[in-house]
Amino acid sequence: MPRSRGTWGIAPDALREAKDTLGIRLPVAIRNTSSLESHTILGLYSFDPDARVHLIQIDPRLSRRHANRILWHELAHAAQGERLKRRQVVGLGGYDERRPPLISSPSFRRYWKEPYEREARGVERRYARHVDIAVRIK
Q1: CATH number, residue 93
Q2: CA angle, corner 57, sides to 53 and 62, nearest 5?
Q3: Given Cys at both, which of 21, 59, 65, 135 links 11, Cβ 3.0 to 4.6 Å?
């Protein structure tokens, strides 16, 4: 379980910049939640079709730097959903968020090789170093 390494929050201007960079048009709601069932899930993307909003859940115990990487990763899934006209991208690779695989399991390794996850990790690597969506709160 990740330990808290400091308090961080969302920089609205950086979030707008990230949405513009990735071509996300619909609203994004980010919720801190430590109720994610598995310590292998540090962030989770979903889409609320009734409200037409992308939802990102993130573990607040993450360090600011790790949270920033997770936010970029989950925003990549939101962009994928809009680009593909399919709002819910998570699960396209056969990953069931209600029963996450163990991090060392073959199914988890297969999940990380899925094209949608590979693309999201690429977005994370490319942008998280340059734009801080998660900022330290003093």
Answers
A1: 3.30.2010
A2: 145
A3: 135
Give me 76's structure tokens: 């990549």
Could you tell me if residue 6 is inside a domain?
no
Closest residue by Cα to residue 71 from 113, 12, 114, 6: 12
Print the domain residue range for 71: 11-129
- When divided into structural domains, the chain yields a total of 1
**Domain assignment of residue 45, yes or no:** yes
Q: What would the pLDDT profile of 55-100 be if each residue is shown by its tens digit? A: 999 988 889 999 999 999 999 999 998 888 765 554 443 334 444 4
Number of neighbouring beta carbons within 10 Å of residue 102: 10
Residue 112 CA to residue 116 CA, distance in Å, equals 9
13: left (phi over 0), alpha (psi -120 to 50) or beta: alpha
Using the predicted structure, report yes or no on whether residue 35 has a pLDDT greater than 70.
Answer: no
- Kindly state the helix (H) or strand (E) to which residue 127 belongs, with its residue range: helix 115-127
